[in-house]
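Comment thread on ticket #2218

A.B. wrote:
> Attaching the input chain for the structure job we discussed in standup.
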Amino acid sequence: MSVYKLFHKIAKFGVRELAQNPELRAKTVSFVKDQVVPQAKAGWEKAKPKLEQVKDTAVGAAKDVADVARENDPREDPKKFLSKASQRLRDRAKR
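C.D. wrote:
> Ran it. Output below, let me know if you need it in another format.
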């Protein structure tokens, strides 16, 4: 039995037990509200600045590649386009 199948069976059993047991369901709701939600919010607040930085970097890289595509048509000379685009991205990474 693979790990995936084992995990799937355990999860299926847990969900079935939650659906049938109101006391367990209430404890689970309480646990999620008291433990999981605050940790998830804290994790999101911690990750948010880094995600914004990565988003800005990705948008800038896409603009750089688009600029290179305007300067060097990738259909006419793909080798030159790839060379210039990769050089521009390497220069961006050094900054």
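A.B. wrote:
> Thanks. Noting for the ticket: Helices lie at 3-20, 22-71, 78-94.
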